[in-house]
């Protein structure tokens, strides 16, 4: 009998999640049914989207129910298997939940090749964040060589991949991030053409100084004032890919909308929302491309890895909302 | 020597234009140059977009300069011609400005066939409003038969054509307008499936009662609260065509943005701005289609025609902003 330590949703948070949001419980896992595997979870993905999953509203996935194990992507090792797809000792990834052990359907898990990349990278550049960047930039925003691409949350898991893909694609790339350390990393290590510290002043003024003709693509991970300011920098025919709005996820009052949205009309521009899960059929194509870029060094994967038990989940999650992480945030159990 | 009575911009308005906005002046027109024609203007088009042309901001056309004749589309009769394209007595349309006479380049004017439609219709369903509806619905919003189309400003020059085109295209059409007279007109005369009076309560609740599954297309002429409410009714894959924002044009403080814009993400939806002038190459195709619909009665053109001199321009323009007109607003000189 395996005992799993799990983080469950105790109460829906108002504003930032806190200690009252979570219960940490030890639970005896059931015996394996046919097609199931027992996984020891070694790495958990911490994502801004998690905050949205805590709200009881209609969204692109159902909310996590009160009392349920918190939803999370994870990487782990198969300890026991009644699934033909995964053998004991295999590394796998999937929605494991925030737990150190889990019984899962083998068909819901993907094999993970740790020779290609480390477990944290399999939760970042080779998982939802990397895929989100890939489909958002190429399919939703349809970035073309020679265009100017602006990306917010540029030092985050998604944004850092967006910028590097765009650079490799022949675009001129401007990243928006918080603080000089992150902006330096973008230009000096990742090859962004320019980076803006949104804490230093209005984003549209900084963009205009760098690209007076405006931007062709804006990849939005943050929403709020930065989105509103970015709208003022659009070039004719610009495309905004709407990926997230981390600046508003913990708001306790309705966040204001982007007042400059009529820039879409003046500039014959579009703003399009997307959810990476819709591209599931094409994940292999994107994973193959992202893996090749990692191998040849044209894509740098970076993760902020925090080591701790599942008990550390609640505190670690908050790093996402105070700018504490660079690249993908991972909890290594 | 011809004396033209002209309306010129005296001072840029803050909020609603008023008497201080305009100068009415009598001006001797110059002798005709080569390629020019003298036109007696008989009908002037009054458009919500005019309000935007008065602001000194970068937009899709330059602002009207202080001291300049107010920009306007008009229909008139050629009184004298040094242009091979137009003979004396011909009816023409184009940007005449707010004036009873004007000297214009013949190449900037289009012939108007008054056997096909009346002069007011040549400023409405067969001019910018009709073309805006046609390209916005078919090209920008890509409405498909069987889909649900929501349109605001539905009793206006653009919206009334959008709804009728969508109905004929096999869409289910819901119009939003102000007051029971207009909503009744939409359903009883124009064949809309349903109409909502936005003064009666939140638009999203009314839409949900009519189309619980949501809308595939939202054609926005009004902006403001109605746009924000409409965002809450989107169905997966919905398209918003952003045509105008009449509710905000006279605002003296920055109007709030659409707070529910993240509905675009949840529903994988898009919001796209457009300007009809970009479709100039394809006007003949659309005019031919709109004319055929007028002829066979499947499209009803309606205009509110005010009779008066150019002195009546300022007061007549205000009808657009207090809901005074149904269909296209025209000043007949």
TrEMBL record, chains A, B:
Tagged with keyword Cell membrane: no
Domain Enoyl reductase (ER) intervals: 15-331
GO terms, molecular function: oxidoreductase activity, acting on the CH-CH group of donors, NAD or NADP as acceptor
SMART domains: PKS_ER (SM00829)
Leader sequence segment: none
Pfam families attached to this UniProt entry: ADH_N_2, ADH_zinc_N
UniProt keyword annotation of Protein transport present: no
Matches recorded under InterPro entries: ADH-like_C, ADH_N_2, ER, GroES-like_sf, MDR_fam, NAD(P)-bd_dom_sf
Key words of the record: Oxidoreductase
Name assigned to this protein: NADP-dependent oxidoreductase
Organism for this UniProt entry: Aeromicrobium erythreum
């Amino acid at each position: 009998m395996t005992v799993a330590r799990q983080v469950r949703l105790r109460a829906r948070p108002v504003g930032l999640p806190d200690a009252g949001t979570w219960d940490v419980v030890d639970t005896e896992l059931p015996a394996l049914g046919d097609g199931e595997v027992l996984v020891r979870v070694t790495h958990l993905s911490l994502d801004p989207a998690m905050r949205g999953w805590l709200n009881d509203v209609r969204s692109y996935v159902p909310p996590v129910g009160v009392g349920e194990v918190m939803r999370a992507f994870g990487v782990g090792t198969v300890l026991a298997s009644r699934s033909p797809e995964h053998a004991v000792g295999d590394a796998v990834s999937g929605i494991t939940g925030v737990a150190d052990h889990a019984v899962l359907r083998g068909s819901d898990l993907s094999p993970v090749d740790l020779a290609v990349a480390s477990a944290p990278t399999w939760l970042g550049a080779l998982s939802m964040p990397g895929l989100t960047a890939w489909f958002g930039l190429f399919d939703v925003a349809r970035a073309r060589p020679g265009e100017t691409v602006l990306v917010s949350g540029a030092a985050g898991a998604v944004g850092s991949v967006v910028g590097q893909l765009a650079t490799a694609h022949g675009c001129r790339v401007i990243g928006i991030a918080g603080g000089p350390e992150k902006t330096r990393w973008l230009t000096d290590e990742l090859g962004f053409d320019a980076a803006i510290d949104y804490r230093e002043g209005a984003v549209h003024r900084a963009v205009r100084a760098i690209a007076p003709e405006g931007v062709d693509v804006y990849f939005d991970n943050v929403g709020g004032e930065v989105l509103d300011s970015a709208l003022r920098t659009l070039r004719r025919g610009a495309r905004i890919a709407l990926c997230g709005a981390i600046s508003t996820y913990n708001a306790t009052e309705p966040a204001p909308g982007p007042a400059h949205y009529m820039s879409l009309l003046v500039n014959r521009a579009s703003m399009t929302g997307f959810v990476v899960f819709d591209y599931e059929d094409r994940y292999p194509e994107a994973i193959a491309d992202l893996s090749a870029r990692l191998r040849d060094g044209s894509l740098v994967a970076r993760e902020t890895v925090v080591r701790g038990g599942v008990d550390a989940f609640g505190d670690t999650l908050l790093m996402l909302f105070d700018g504490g992480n660079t690249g993908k945030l991972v909890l290594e159990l």
